[in-house]
Amino acid sequence: MIIVAAMFLAKFCDELADLTGLGGSVTGLVLLAGATSLPELSVGYGAIKIGAEDLTAGGVLGSSLVNLLILSLVDLASRRPGKILTRSAAAHALSATVGALLTGLILLGVLLDNDWTFLRVSPVCWAAMAAYVLCARLVYLDQREASKLSVSTSDEQRAESKSKLVPILLNFAGFGVATAVIFFVAPMVASRADQIADVTGLGETFIGTLLVAAVTSLPEAVSTIAAVRLGAVDMAIANIFGSNAFNMVILAFLDVTTPHSILFAVSETHAITAACVLVTTAVGLLSILYQPEKRFWLVEPDAALVSLLVLGSLYLVYLCG
């Protein structure tokens, strides 16, 4: 059900990007990333209710690693000319930086190990929510300025935009239905993952980072592949980096549901996961900004390096956890 809903999400977001004029970067960063990150929110909330905060943090931070793995594998498997990670570099570099900024704040919160809260939310989580809103605004303004350079608004275009109102509403309705399916189906994962952590003895931190993250990242994987097949590469990349940013905001939202700071309660092993996300994102960011003129390799070295970094990170979390 999650896979099918995610396929429709990509289709609806691609239509909305064209109809509203927002572009693939903004639509992927905000709409698609927010919707595909709902499993992390619902599963995380379910894990907190059963007292498994480490499962929540592991699922959210691990999902960011898995998302980067998804992007690198899609890049490796893509048969399109050139490599995916070097298109529209400026907009995607901005999205990647947003994700790195928010991950750094969460890493700081885990390392501070302080239980001080304001309105039941830790200062670091307040900072993460504020940073997300401001950065999403920056991406929107950047996209709008870019569109101004290429498109001039005329009376005919304004009339055409009015005729698009019904298709826009229909696509928003379809988007809402697909989002609801993902949100209500995903919580079933939390209780099963907690049982697996107990039975296998691997612990909530590793199970959350690997198993829960893999399952909750299904929407990102499916929607990213679907977006690339639709030719909406901008939206696919923005979806991954946007999901990583939104994942950090999810931890801030979930902070309200606990009597103490969630970052204070979780294992410090999650700091390793957050640091690995930062390193891997930095490599992805370098790949976006560096655009060689020719392609000599049979396998994209930057995408392969991102994949190896993610797998190495998961193994490191397993050893430390």
Task: Write the topology of this structure.
Layout: H1 2-20, H2 23-36, H3 38-49, H4 53-77, H5 89-112, H6 123-150, H7 155-163, H8 165-185, H9 188-200, H10 204-216, H11 218-229, H12 233-254, H13 262-265, H14 269-289, H15 301-320
If helices are DSSP runs of H or I spanning 4 or more residues, what is the number of helices? 15
Question: Low-confidence parts lasting 5 or more residues at pLDDT below 50?
Answer: 152-159
The ordered H/E elements are HHHHHHHHHHHHHHH
CATH topology-level name: A middle domain of Talin 1
Rounded mean pLDDT is 75
What is the helix content?
over 70%
**CATH homologous group name:** NCX, central ion-binding region
Largest sheet: none
**Count of domains:** 1
Q: What does the overall shape look like?
A: globular
Using the CA coordinates, give the radius of gyration: 19 Å
Beta fraction of the residues? under 5%
What is the architecture at the second tier of CATH?
Up-down Bundle
Give the end-to-end Cα distance, rounded to a whole number of Å. Answer: 32 Å
Could you tell me the number of beta strands?
0
- Helical/strand content category: mainly alpha
Q: What is the name of the CATH class?
A: Mainly Alpha
